[in-house]
Structure formats: C-alpha cells, structure tokens
C-alpha cells in the first residue's frame, strides 16, 4: 500500500475529502432550510401556531406543551432527510457504518425521544423564567444550564451511553492491567477500564475518559482494541488521560460557560428589544421560542472559531503529554494515521477548514509533532 509523506493512505484520504465535501454542501442546504423555517416562524408562522393551539379546548398548562410538541415535530421532519443521507446512507456507502437500517431507525427513535423530552423541558422552563423574571431570566437560565451540564457529566457513562452502546469491563486482563498502570503513571484516578461495543454499529475507533468523580472510567471501543496494537492504544489513552490530568473538561466547561453567558446576555437584550416587532403578545409568549432559538444560533456563530481554537490548544497539549508519558512517537504517529484513515478524517485540510471546523490538531500536525519529538529525543 502506498502512503504519502506523513504515512496516510492517499486513496482513503481522497475518499475522506470527497465525503467531507458532500457533507459540507448538504450542511449548507440544511442551514439554509433551517434559516428559512426560522424566518417563517418568526414573521408570523409561530404566532399562527400559537393561536391554533390556544383555540383548542386544552387546559392552559397543556397549551405550551402541545405547542412545543408540534414545533419539535416540524423541525424533526425537516431534519430527517438530512439525517438519513448523512447519518445512514453515506456512512453505509463509505464503509463506515456496520448498522442495519432497522438498527439505525431504533437509534433515531431514541434520539428523537430524548430530544423531545429535552425540548419540552427547556421550553417550559424558559417560558416560566420569562414570566417570573423578565429582566434576569437569561442569567437564571444560564445557571440552570450549568447545573444540568454537571449532572449529565456524572450520568452520561451510566445512563446515556448505554442507551446506544453496550459497555462491559475490558475482557483482556493483560490489557486492563496495562491501561490501569498507564493511568497510575499519569496520576489520574479512574473507576475502571471499559470496552464499548462499537463494531455492531460502526467501524470507527476511539477512546475516551468518561464521567466525573466516581463515574470516571477509561472507555475504549472494541474496534480500537481489535485493530490497533496495544502500544498504539496506549498512546491514544495517554492522550485522553492528559485531559483529566490537566483538568481539561473543567477548563472547557469554564470557557464554554463564560462564552454561553455572553451569548445569553446578548440574546436576552435583543429579545427584549425585538419581541413586539414579531407579533409576540408578551415577553413570555410561547410564540417567541423560535425567535429565541434563532437568536441564540445566530449570536453563537462568531464565537465558534474561538471555541475551536481553545479546543485545539487543549488537544495539542494532550498530544505532547502522551508523547512525554509513553516516549513512543512511532506508535503515536501510527495511531494517528490509523485513526484518520479508518475513520475517514481528512488529515491535511485547508487552513480555513481547520479554523472553522476542527476541534483537534490535524492529522498531519500530529504526525509532525511525533516526528519532531522523536528527532529531539534522538
């Protein structure tokens, strides 16, 4: 098999670039469609839906729930064709998906169920806050959002992930001992090493340290354990352990929290100034929820490159920690090449693509870091 100057498979990288281009074009079409829907809702559509709901013989408390249910159904119906093409059809045709269509539908139903519950809960809470505290609703919403994020950080490994993937303690005792020793060397306490059975659905490989406190655990996909050497897996795990060593989840949480505070403050100010322009009867009118969602999405856009930049800095530091901990640049580079080629990640994107879309250093950057480490250690 021929490889390029950094060790990547040219054919796999060409396929990755074609897939990325198709995804980008479809995401543009999806964004245009969503913007058109939000504009329609903001300029009368949402008010008409509100009036239709209020004209029904439903208890007053049920009207916002019905409104949110219909609104969620509209957005879900709009998203479904895009989700099918990107999440199933292209994943299948590119060889990334191992999941049958029925299995994909089951996961879709779970995602929609969770999304519906979350949407109704968020919408009802927002309406209550807008009525109870018209001036400071956005600040209270921000504080509640932080509490929910912390709670999900604890519960994700034990409640949310098992909804979609099977998790089990790592079977191979030698690998488990090896990974636990690596965690001890990194001075990162963990609750155990678990294997995520990803091969039933995908051919992608990954590793992570999930959870917080007593739920913190090392998680490796069975595809990673099966298709990578133990030395390569160690370098990937060392990278993940670095995030815990440097408290990167907390750093990311704090920086994201500050950014979200600024965004919500701007949303609160603009919504308070504009809601009457869009036929809203009051600040807590349920018809204003699409406008709130649109404002949040619009104001969040300029902050995205900053968040990605901060993420790339944290990921690059974790790469350096992995190299320092394992002293194995050859297997680190090999792992990065395999991850990008097998997961169809573009290893050498154009600068604007890296700036707009990449939360991690590029594959080329990571291989070059490993080579520079090897040269300095020689």
Largest sheet: 4 strands, mixed
How far apart lie the N and C ends?
Answer: 28 Å
Q: How helix-rich are the residues, as a percent range? A: over 70%
Model regions low in confidence, pLDDT < 50 over at least 5 residues: none
Average of per-residue pLDDT values: 92
Task: Quickly give the structural class.
Answer: mainly alpha
Task: Give me the strand/helix succession.
Answer: HHHHEHEEEHHHHHHHH
Strand order of the largest sheet: 1-2-4-3
Number of helices: 13
The outline comes out as elongated
Number of separate strands: 4
Radius of gyration, whole Å: 23 Å
Q: Report the portion of residues in β strands.
A: under 5%
In short:
By secondary structure, the chain is mostly helical. The protein has 13 helices and four strands.
Detailed description of the structure:
The chain has 378 residues and is mainly alpha-helical. Helix content is 71%, strand content 5%. The chain contains 13 helices and four strands. A hairpin with a 6-residue loop joins β3 and β4. The radius of gyration is 23 Å and the shape is elongated. The protein starts with 9 loop residues before the first helix and ends with a helix.
């Amino acid at each position: 098999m021929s490889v390029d100057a950094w060790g990547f498979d040219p054919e796999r990288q060409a396929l990755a670039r074609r897939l990325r281009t198709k995804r980008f074009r479809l995401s543009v079409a999806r964004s245009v469609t969503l913007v058109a829907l939000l504009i329609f809702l903001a300029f009368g559509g949402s008010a008409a839906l509100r009036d239709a709901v209020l004209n029904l013989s439903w208890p007053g408390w049920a009207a916002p729930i019905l409104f949110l249910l219909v609104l969620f159904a509209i957005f879900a119906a709009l998203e479904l064709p895009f989700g099918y093409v990107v999440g199933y059809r292209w994943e299948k045709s590119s060889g990334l998906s191992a999941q049958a269509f029925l299995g994909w539908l089951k996961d879709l139903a779970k995602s929609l169920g969770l999304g519906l519950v979350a949407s109704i809960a968020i919408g009802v809470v927002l309406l209550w806050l807008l009525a109870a505290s018209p001036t400071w609703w956005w600040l209270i919403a921000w504080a509640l959002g932080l509490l929910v994020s912390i709670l999900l950080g604890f519960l994700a490994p034990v409640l949310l992930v098992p909804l979609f993937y099977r998790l089990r303690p790592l079977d191979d005792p030698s690998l488990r001992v090896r990974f636990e020793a690596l965690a001890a060397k990194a001075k990162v306490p963990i609750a155990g090493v678990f294997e995520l059975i990803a091969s039933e659905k995908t051919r992608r490989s990954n590793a992570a340290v999930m959870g917080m406190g007593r739920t913190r655990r090392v998680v490796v996909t069975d595809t990673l354990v099966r298709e990578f050497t133990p030395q390569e897996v160690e370098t990937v795990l060392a990278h993940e352990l670095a995030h815990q060593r440097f408290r990167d989840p907390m750093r990311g949480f704090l920086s994201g929290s500050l950014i979200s505070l600024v965004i919500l403050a701007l949303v609160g100010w603009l919504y308070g100034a504009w809601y009457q322009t869009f036929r809203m009867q009051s600040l807590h009118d349920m018809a204003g929820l699409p406008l709130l969602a649109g404002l949040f999405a619009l104001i969040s856009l300029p902050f995205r490159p900053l968040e990605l930049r901060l993420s790339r800095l944290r990921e690059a530091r974790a790469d350096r920690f992995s190299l320092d901990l394992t002293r194995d640049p050859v297997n680190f580079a090999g792992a990065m090449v395999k991850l990008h080629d097998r997961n169809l990640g573009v290893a050498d994107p154009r600068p604007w693509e890296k700036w707009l879309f990449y939360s991690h250093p590029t594959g080329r950057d990571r291989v070059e870091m490993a080579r520079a480490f090897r040269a300095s250690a020689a």
